[in-house]
Amino acid sequence: MGMRLTVDQFRQTALFLLDKVVETGCVDKALAAEIRAATLADDPEQVAIEAQRGRIEQLKKQCGKQGDCADCKQLLTVADYLVRKSVWAVGGDGWAYDIGYGGLDHVLASGKKVNVLVLDTEVYSNTGGQMSKSTPRAAVAKFAAAGKQAPKKDLGLLAMVYGSIYVAKVAMGANASQAVKAFAEAEAYTGPSLIIAYSHCINHGFNLTTGYEEQKKAVASGHWPLYRFDPRLKEQGKNPLQLDSKPPTIEFSEYAYNEDRYKSLKQSKPEVAAELMKLANRDAVERYVLMEQLAGLKCGQCQPGAAEPSPETKE
Amino acid sequence: MKRKMVTTDGNGAAAHSAHATNEVIAIYPITPSSPMGEIADAKTAKGEPNIWGTVPSVTEMQSEAGAAGAVHGALAAGALTTTFTASQGLLLMIPNMYKIAGELLPTVFHITARSLACHALSIFGDHSDVMTCRETGFGMLCSCSVQEVMDFALISQQATLASRVPFMHFFDGFRTSHEEQKVEELTFDDMRAMIDDELVAQHRARALTPDRPVMGGTAQNPDVYFQGRETCNPFYLATPKIVEETMDKFAGIVGRQYKLFDYVGAPDAEKVIIMMGSGAETAHETVDYLNAKGAKVGLIKVRLYRPFSTKHFMAVLPKTVKKIAVLDRTKEPGALGEPLYLDIRTAVGEAMADGIAPFDKYPVIVGGRYGLGSKEFTPAMVKAVYDNLDAAKPKRGFTVGIVDDVTNTSLNVDDLFQIPSEGMYRAMFYGLGSDGTVGANRNSIKIIGELTDNYAQAYFVYDSRKAGTITVSHLRFGKKQIQRPYLINQADFVACHNPSFLEKYDMLSSARKGGTFLLTSFHGADKVWDTLPQEVQKQMIAKKLKFYVIDAISLAQEIGLGGRINVIIQTAFFKISNIVPLDKAVVAIKDAIRKTYGKRGEKVIEMNNAAVDKAVSRVYEVKVPAKVTSKTKMPPVVPADAPEFVRTVTAELMAMRGDSVPVSKFPVDGRFPVGTTQYEKRNIAVNIPVWQPELCLQCGMCSLVCPHATIRIKDYDPKSLQGAPEAFKSIDAKGKEFKGMKFTVQVAPEDCTGCGACVQTCPGAERGPDKQPTGRKAINLEMQEPIRERERKNYAFFLSIPNTDAVLFKANTVKGSQLIQPLFEYSGACAGCGETAYVKLLTQLFGDRAYIGNATGCSSIYGGNLPTTPYTTRKDGRGPTWCNSLF
Questions:
Q1: How many structural domains compose chain A?
Q2: pLDDT of B179-232, one tens digit each?
């Protein structure tokens, strides 16, 4: 967040100085105008970025010629900020769902152009596999030796509620093009973005060679619905939420029981495991159905008054 | 009463006492304290009760701030409550710690004292975190050894109930917390005798309850806040005596006598060191040794640091003392000195003013720093500290254990100074991370500890990178308690679990003369000698080492254990060392296998048992020839054309010689050059993917999913093929945008970890005449060693081909994204990591303009852990700029 504030501030400073160096005659007016236009257009395409870099090189040359111009000297220290910068916060689920959630929520709510990539392993991987609020129900983790009782927190849904955040849930192994597209869209979006990326992990307890196969199963079970929530679609009268994965074709347990984090409870406490798995199966289906319903809403015609107040609260 | 001897580490010892004497436990993971929470959680999950017969509740919070908040609430509501933490985690607790102390709520926080993230993060040990909390009003009790951890965890629990002053009970993170020792286990009877139930009842009686309501935590104004703050004084004044009495009570019940300050050494010592923590054990052993040789030196181990009792301190300081060195394991930049030093100066000054000092002349007092971030602290360094006191003008504010050539604070250390090791067996194992070595060695010392009357100690050195790095296990056994919280440098037994290590690390320098060397090699007893580098052969001859070889890797693959060669080496160790009769050892190893792998199912247990049986007959002794015959030498750590910083600093760190790099070589603000993983050719893959062009769909999936950026694709002008190595593969490019171009998939053979994710994902399956898949794909795994050289050349050539022109393709497609150079490569993440491919994709799409603020976690470790880091730049020097941000 601090990085974004600095980058934006420097960009403003550079634009301010750009006007001054045109006034002083140090820099060619047409070049400055092109630079200003490109800076404001803020085109995320690589070709546009490289073209702007070329212009900034010229600008630096022109500024560098004027040995004693204070404005030129100042501009040289910030000229590179006229080229688009991409600010990313990267972290795991322990950070995003738990310890850093307050800060993350604040950044996403700020409207600033910060991109967030959550590498979601559903467990604290770095400290050796402790439960986080991303850990699914029925999984065994450290600090949850008896199996996690509560369902997984839906971080994406929480962020979507703001309405102004680009949110995507991706799993490279299940749909690679959707993942690549989500990265590009997130970065191009003018506001904050959040990508939640399914990340298989050594702590899940299976041979990681088949990690991407597991991702497919996580998606096929409904546990990890793929979607992109793009606020820009609202302007076109469309539902901003696009569901990118199909309805569940397998039970959650069929996916989960490939992994020791679920299997081990079945071995140590079969009855508890069966009970929790029943709930976890339901969690996965419910999660998918909720997304399906949200993605099916007709937008652009939202009118209040559609839902009846419940009889008890009617005045 | 005879108590059970158990093998445990400091975390296990603390959790044993803490779980048994509490009702509510609020936790949050942070290295190296997490195992305490894990053990407590596992005990509760199993229904293990505390000494009152109830099962403590264990709850994970969202952060340490949350854990401390939960502790505060639980205490206020009257439960016996504890937590475990370290480092910046402890710092997150500070706001609540003030409140807990201010409200005189009795609790013990068990802390694995750890460094703070300053110029860099370190998961290792020193006292920076606990020292930051001195002002909170918590008492501070320090344990030096694993036994003390178990004992002090109980003593502090009773002391806090008696004094109402909350305590930090701390011990050295990643030394005491993770050092396995054979200790005497306190029983529930001991604990019941120690904990006064009347005090527990009083704590409950003070609880907040609507049945007897009170107001706590009011807001006060200038008229009364100050007076209120002084009301706690009597409690702090009374605490030292309470802790002393508690220690005496403990001695009466258990037999081990501790004091607030323990003095060891000559009663008429002139030179005294004052310190706390595990380093005091090293100093203790050194003092005994030096005094036996005629010196007159002493040591004060500070146990109760807060509240500090000058009276008790003066009572143990010999009246003959003339010179004092105070050692702090923390740093306070800009201060007159570190905290313990300042306290000792004040204590001596005030004692002299009050006339209670045992001497008339103010002694020479100097302070120094040691052991930051788990820097080794050895007997030679202890001696250097005493030697400094002999100087005409002893250095003040010195450092010991490093070379400081900038402000010249460091003391000279005589590295040859050693304390003899008669009657002690020392073994070192160089394993590959995730090969199971550490787990097997942990079992080994339990076996030795339980089957013999030997004391045992084990400590494991791993860097904080993930799988595929070296782990060194240090095991000691002996008839006497082992008081050596430092690494072995003269081993009776050295085992090398991966033949490639011999080319990288000088591991035999730590073998003693006449010791034993066990090597894992693909070559048999008749051929292995000639495969060793000259440097290794020379040392083996000079040191007259006994040499054994075992092909553990092939054996493990044969049985189906993959890379987990741990029990094979473990069995070989027991066979060669003969510490326990082999038949007994085999039974014990199999028991341990059942305990360790029970959760994984019968098949895993059977495979491991088979490994034990086969290993016994596959260890061969090799006769060491009298002459060096090898034609190979250890290669340079990094290529000669690497940047200067990489050659002079990074390379030293990679060769495990980082300890001797002086201060002047390091950046002052912790900012390092990028793109250094390319110089660390780890060669950890047994098998690597090989491309079969005619089956390839040219989709780019292999490159996209690769966690380590070691499989790459390019579409390029056929002219670029000029000068290609003979074995370089190329095929006509598919797709109209690449018409007339060539296409190649190339693997970085020495950086690949061999996870096989690319092969698994590859859609280019070969089909037989019956149209069924043959199992072969457009990429297939082959043994790395035979093709390493060939592919190294191919990869170098591949990198020299210009990148595909960006105007030819769309970046936001799978293939397009993979035609862009990744600016995150060869990280230290686990083989098959599911996170890194996303990070790599980010750098391909936006790397040239990306700022990355990385929250602490796996991604900050594989992303930013020394010696080498994976973020790199394009040819024009642009690339992601990266910084760790804590939360």
A1: 2
A2: 999 999 999 999 999 999 999 999 999 999 999 999 999 999 999 999 999 999
Nearest to B812 among A99, A124, A180 (CB): A180
| pLDDT (mean) for B238-257 | 98
**What is the domain-level CATH number for residue A204?**
3.40.50.970
* Cα gap B33→B464, rounded to integer Å: 15
Q: In this structure, are A284 and A238 located in the same domain?
A: yes
Q: Is B832 close to A202, i.e. CB distance below 8 A?
A: yes
**Measured between CA atoms, how close is B35 to chain A, in angstroms?**
9
- Is residue A193 within 8 Å of residue A116, measured between CB atoms? yes
Q: What tokens appear for B361 in the block? A: 């002349």
CA-CA distance, B801 to B711, in Å (whole number)? 15
B582-587: long-range contacts, CB 8 A cutoff, minimum separation 24: B582/B616, B584/B451, B585/B447, B585/B451, B586/B612, B586/B613, B586/B616
Read off the amino acid at residue B718. Answer: P
Same domain flag for A94 and A54 = no
Q: How confident is the model at residue B686 (pLDDT cuts 50, 70, 90)?
A: confident
> Min CA distance, A259 vs chain B (Å)?
10
Give the residue from chain A lying closest to B820, CA to CA: A46
Angle formed by the axes of helices B34-45 and B10-20, to 10°? 50
Q: Please check whether residues A50 and A192 belong to one and the same domain.
A: no
Percent over 70 (pLDDT), chain B? 99
Asked if A182 and A202 sit in the same domain, the reply is: yes
Pairing of strands B323-328, B424-432: unpaired
Is residue A303 included in any domain, yes or no? no
| In a shared domain, residues A168 and A240 | yes
Interface test with B, best of A45, A133, A143, A276 (most B CBs within 10 A): A143
- The minimal CB distance from B849 to the residues A83, A143, A215 is found for A83
Q: How far is B852 from chain A (nearest CA, A)?
A: 5
* Min Cα–Cα distance to chain B from A294, Å: 26
Do A78 and A189 fall within a single domain?
A: no
User: Residue B384: pLDDT above 60?
Assistant: yes
In a domain, A304, yes or no: no
Q: What is the ipTM of this complex?
A: 0.95
Q: B859: which chain A residues are within 8 Å (Cβ-Cβ)?
A: 90-92, 119
In chain B, which residue's Cα lies nearest the Cα of A141?
B38
- Determine phi and psi for B142, rounding to 5 degrees: -115, 130
Which DSSP helix (H) or strand (E) runs through B331?
none
Q: Which residues pair with B518 in a beta bridge?
A: B495, B548
Question: Looking up tokens 């991303």, which residue turns up?
Answer: A134
Candidate from B37, B46, B855 with C-beta closest to A95: B855
Region at A35 (left for phi over 0; alpha for psi -120 to 50; beta for the rest): alpha
Do A204 and A278 lie in one domain? The reply is: yes
In a domain, A257, yes or no: yes
Query: Do A216 and A107 share a structural domain?
Result: yes
B851:A133 CB<8 A? no
- Which residue, of A50, A82, A114, is where some domain finishes? A82
Gap between the Cα atoms of A226 and B593, Å rounded: 41
Token couple for A109 = 């709510």
Interface test with A, best of B435, B703, B838 (most A CBs within 10 A): B838
Residue where a domain stops, chosen among A82, A103, A120: A82
Q: What are phi and psi of B492, to 5 degrees?
A: -80, -25
Q: Which of A99, A199, A209 sits opposite B887 (nearest CB)?
A: A99
What domain range is A12 assigned to?
2-82
B834/A211 Cβ within 8 A: yes
Rounded to an integer, what distance in angstroms lies between the CA atom of residue B68 and that of residue B95? 9
Chain mean pLDDT for chain B: 95
Token pair listed for B89: 């985690």
Q: Is residue A288 part of a domain?
A: yes
By DSSP bridging, strand B424-432 and strand B455-462 are unpaired
